[in-house]
Amino acid sequence: MGRKVTLATCSLNQWALDFEGNLTRILKSIEIAKQRGAKYRLGPELEICGYGCADHFYESDTLLHCFQVLKSLLESPLTQDIICDVGMPVMHHNVRYNCRVIFLNKKILLIRPKMLLANYGNNREFRWFSPWSRPRYVEEYFLPRMIQDLTGQTTVPFGDGVLSTKDTCLGSEICAELWNPRSPHVDMGLDGIEIFTNSSASYHELRKADHRVNLIKSATTKSGGIYLFANQKGCDGDRLYYDGCAMIAINGDIVARGAQFSLEDVEVVTATLDLEDVRSYRGERLTKHHKPYTRIKTDFSLSDCDDRCLPTHQPVEWIFHTPEEEISLGPACWLWDYLRRSGQAGFLLPLSGGVDSSSTACIVYSMCVQICQAVKDGNSQVLEDVQRVVNDSSYRPEDPRELCGHLFTTCYMASENSSEDTCNRAKDLAAQIGCIYLMEITVKRWPQFRAKGGSARENLALQNVQARIRMILAYLFAQLCLWAQGKPGGLLVLGSANVDESLTGYFTKYDCSSADINPIGGVSKMDLKCFLQYCVKSFQLTALIGILDAPPTAELEPLTDGKVVQTDEADMGMTYSELSVIGRLRKISKCGPYSMFCKLIHSWKETFSPSQVATKVKHFFRMYSINRHKMTTVTPSYHAENYSPDDNRFDLRPFLYNTQWAWQFRCIDNEVSISLELCIIINISTEINMALKVSK
């Protein structure tokens, strides 16, 4: 009997309810795995239907179509002589479970339901699924008739079991089970299971990848073993981007890994490993485990008898992307998926010459860079998609600037309050990335600004009118730009409001922040500035230097002597840096006004007095509560920041508040009074001590 096994895991760009496309990508991954000599193939979580089906999981059609796809997989010659591990929802005793279905040679070996559901962040699995609550327990599952007729099986094992081949033993984890303090791999390792598998739908967040990798390394550092991680990739129909990172580890070392960001719809990662390395590692660490798992015995070997000359994979170093690189790559891949699957012909962006719209433009340019590189590397799917988007079957993108001219249209929407500086900055950036750049639009109205004697209502209305007209014109251009050129299709309108502006509501409802999609809506202003500095170096976009040097401004109030006097930070009453801190306290630390004040008087004590901190906290919560209603209609944005105020599902809050916050603010005032009294006492004490010293 041999001892070396070749295993395969993968990242697939699945799409919710795209059963046909999902089946094709699953079969492709199995084909590649077999070509590389693998005897076991692991796929992402819920890969048959797509992870993001949301309330479609309630529909019996979704369950039916999943079993139809499973039948096609069982029938396919590609799935013969390889253990296939696929994900789909299964209803058992009228309860819906998120399951792995493991099969070999037209026989289902085991259905393993998820035991620890993800119900935090963007995940709402308890909404659609129930956890399997019986550890190490297996019972019978009656198969649908269409599967019975094919496999000849009436029932199959269902539950927390493990798969025992002739040469080793495999056990499953599903996504969040790895992140849980009671991860199943711990007990499985103690019971002699040598190969752990994890099928995930883990979405991208900035600075998250290292946590994922460290968990997988740790899983096999403690007690040894082989760990396979599969993940979804791409945009499967909503605002999340699943960032791949398929990997294989052994005894605490990563030996094979896939890309975090790529335009490949199917990416397979394989490794050949020696089971004796696991056994040797465990020899001095493990003791007898007293609660054995039910082993589903399989007359199949993952190894070959003659494998002495087969080389094994060695540890590899994982170099993580910087946050600036993640912003450059993740949202760009997300935009490409959205564009190619929307049936539209490109993007339109109102380019203001400021940080936010410039960041969005740079992300589109980064998308074009990745597309050209993918075509150069021989990615036929990307080439086919590009040709369809530009409506030219002979087109082959080679230069990102040239491709940008096909896919990306920008326009400078000037008013009488726009400065020549911002116009020039926008024009320079558009020229450097190669996008189409349209003429400016002038907006004039009768009401007067405050600077010219108008009321506060007039002043705000005039700003909002300008902002909303920009949105109207953006959609007009998106619909008619290609028509005017005699080309088919329309353009997707991109938004460019950052996460901090959404948090405070510092934008006009249905203004230029209203668009089809927004690639930077989940990124903070501070990260965007770092990203633009990265773009200056990486893409040689020198026009960004002037943009970074200019103060952020909405440019909706009159100029003074031709210069901008309105700034975002002055309007908001706090800096973007301060807002980023407050945003994290509100969401991540779960702080209300009072607890936020209590934390900030310590962390900001070198900069602000307690009364100044109180003023800032009160101002923030007033802004937040008054403007929260805007989040119910905010443009779908790429999710990148863990303090995002996205109302859709990440940050579920009321949008009608008592904006006086009477009780909370009174608690803050009491603390400020105590602080002032203490300061007075300290000052008096100091003066008395000084007087005593003088008298002596």
UniProtKB/TrEMBL annotation:
Gene3D superfamilies: Carbon-nitrogen hydrolase, HUPs. In the C-terminal section; belongs to the NAD synthetase family. InterPro entries: C-N_Hydrolase (IPR003010), C-N_Hydrolase_sf (IPR036526), Gln-dep_NAD_synthase (IPR014445), NAD/GMP_synthase (IPR022310), NAD_synthase (IPR003694), Rossmann-like_a/b/a_fold (IPR014729). Its EC number is 6.3.5.1. Homohexamer. It comes from the Eukaryota. One of its GO terms (cellular component) is cytosol. It comes from Cyprinus carpio (Common carp). GO terms for molecular function: ATP binding; glutaminase activity; NAD+ synthase (glutamine-hydrolyzing) activity. This is Glutamine-dependent NAD(+) synthetase. Pathway: Cofactor biosynthesis; NAD(+) biosynthesis; NAD(+) from deamido-NAD(+) (L-Gln route): step 1/1.
